């Protein structure tokens, strides 16, 4: 396992691997790794080929009053957590390597980034898209793995990969949850004991929408109102949004159908949490629901790596 900090070194490593006919799987992360990240790494590893994991807390996706400076960082612990997967490389560049003086070009995602997280965190998806393009150019992976938990991020990146004919296949993997349904997130570290007890309310609200959908309710506004009622009843929660939307554009769905996604975001104490569930047939496994939402796994617009 090589710890690489230099952009040139990671580029030459993966170029060399690809010249030798090895496929490259890539898991981009901001570190503070938990089982959610490790499920992506496990999945990437199981595909065979070479495995590269990046750890980079990307400053450009944080707003000025957000948690960039206190975002949890522990490279040594992350490397230990990754060791058992024997990645070919852990790529952990510094901010000045990724954004040297004079850096002046950004990717501006379109409508899919306009609402929800995009509206509440101006510039967030611009930062995500920009860093992901840089990482994909540096690592040039065949497949890149992202979690369903950041659903809008996945939709934005899918759109960008298609629009820019980037030769990387996007693989979206199911959200990993605690025993009480709370989606794993590095930001769960901010929750006090009381906040932690309250936090599963996001999942409970999503479950309610799913139950209603399974019972035949398809009016998206009714599903959204049911989620909001549950969230608002939780004493420590401050709701940002609850909605049922089309999975590709994130436009409101008047009538919810299989593949539509229920999205919620709420503050719980000091932490801002997001979660989602894809609606579909009762009992459908997560992988099937992800496929429903993203149709066939996303590929570049007709272009694959040579
Ligand atoms: O999902 C994340 O951890 C980040 O947004 C990503 C994709 C690594 C870009 O910084």
The CA-CA distance between the termini, in Å, is 27 Å
Shape: globular
Spans of at least 5 consecutive residues whose pLDDT stays below 50 are 296-304
CATH architectural grouping of the largest domain:
3-Layer(aba) Sandwich
Proportion of residues in β-strands: 15-25%
Determine the CATH topology of the largest domain: Rossmann fold
Strand segment count: 9
- Strands side by side in the biggest sheet: 1-4-3-2-5-6
* Count of discrete structural domains: 2
Question: Helix-strand pattern, N to C?
Answer: EHEHEHEHHHEHEHHHEEEH
Radius of gyration over alpha carbons? 19 Å
Number of helices: 11
Arithmetic mean of pLDDT: 95
The CATH superfamily title of the largest domain:
HUPs
CATH class of the largest domain: Alpha Beta
Bound molecules: pantoate
Structural class: alpha/beta
What's the helical proportion of residues?
A: 25-40%
Largest sheet: 6 strands, parallel
Brief synopsis:
The chain is of the alpha/beta class and 306 residues long.
Set down the secondary structure blueprint.
Layout: E1 2-4, H1 7-19, E2 24-29, H2 35-46, E3 50-55, H3 75-83, E4 89-91, H4 95-98, H5 117-120, H6 124-139, E5 143-147, H7 151-163, E6 169-173, H8 193-198, H9 201-214, H10 220-233, E7 237-245, E8 261-268, E9 271-278, H11 286-293
Helix pairs in contact: 6-7, 9-10
The structure holds pantoate.
Plain-language structure description:
By secondary structure, this protein is an alpha/beta fold. The chain has 2 domains: 2-173, Rossmann fold (3-Layer(aba) Sandwich), CATH 3.40.50; 186-282, Pantoate-beta-alanine ligase, C-terminal domain (Pantoate--beta-alanine Ligase, Chain: A,domain 2, 2-Layer Sandwich). Helices cover 37% and strands 17% of the residues. The protein is built from 11 helices and 9 strands. The strands form 2 sheets. It has a 6-stranded parallel sheet with strand order 1-4-3-2-5-6, sandwiched between helices. β8 (261-268) and β9 (271-278) form a beta hairpin. α6 (124-139) crosses α7 and α9 packs antiparallel against α10 (220-233). 42% of the residues are buried. Bound molecules: pantoate (PAF). Residues 28-30, 58, 61, 128, 131-132, 150, 153 line the site of pantoate.
């Amino acid at each position: 396992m090589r710890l690489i900090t230099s952009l040139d070194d990671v580029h030459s490593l993966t170029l060399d691997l690809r010249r030798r006919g090895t496929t490259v799987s890539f898991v981009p992360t901001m570190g503070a790794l938990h089982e959610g990240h490790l499920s992506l790494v496990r999945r990437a590893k199981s595909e065979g080929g070479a495995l590269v994991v990046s750890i980079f807390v990307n400053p450009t996706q944080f707003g000025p009053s957000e948690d960039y400076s206190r975002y949890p960082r522990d490279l040594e612990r992350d490397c230990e957590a990754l060791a058992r997967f024997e990645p070919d490389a852990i790529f952990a560049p510094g901010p000045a390597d990724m954004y040297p003086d004079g850096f002046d070009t950004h990717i501006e995602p379109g409508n899919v980034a306009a609402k929800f997280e995009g509206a509440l965190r101006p510039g967030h998806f611009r930062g995500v898209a920009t860093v992901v393009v840089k990482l994909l150019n540096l690592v040039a992976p065949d497949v890149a793995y992202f979690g369903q938990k950041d659903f809008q991020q996945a939709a934005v990146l899918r759109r960008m990969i298609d629009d820019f004919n980037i030769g990387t296949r996007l693989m979206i993997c199911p959200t990993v949850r605690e025993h009480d349904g709370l989606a794993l997130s590095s930001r769960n570290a901010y929750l006090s004991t009381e906040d932690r007890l309250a936090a599963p309310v996001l999942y409970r609200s999503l479950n309610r929408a799913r139950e209603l959908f399974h019972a035949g309710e398809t009016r998206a506004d009714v599903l959204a109102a049911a989620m909001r009622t549950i969230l608002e009843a939780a004493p420590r929660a401050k709701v940002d949004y609850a909605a049922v939307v089309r999975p590709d554009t994130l436009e409101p769905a008047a009538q919810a159908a299989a593949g539509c996604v229920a999205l919620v975001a709420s503050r719980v104490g000091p932490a801002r949490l997001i979660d989602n569930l894809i609606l579909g047939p009762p009992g459908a496994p997560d992988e099937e629901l992800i496929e429903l939402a993203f149709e066939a796994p996303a590929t570049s617009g007709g272009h694959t790596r040579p």
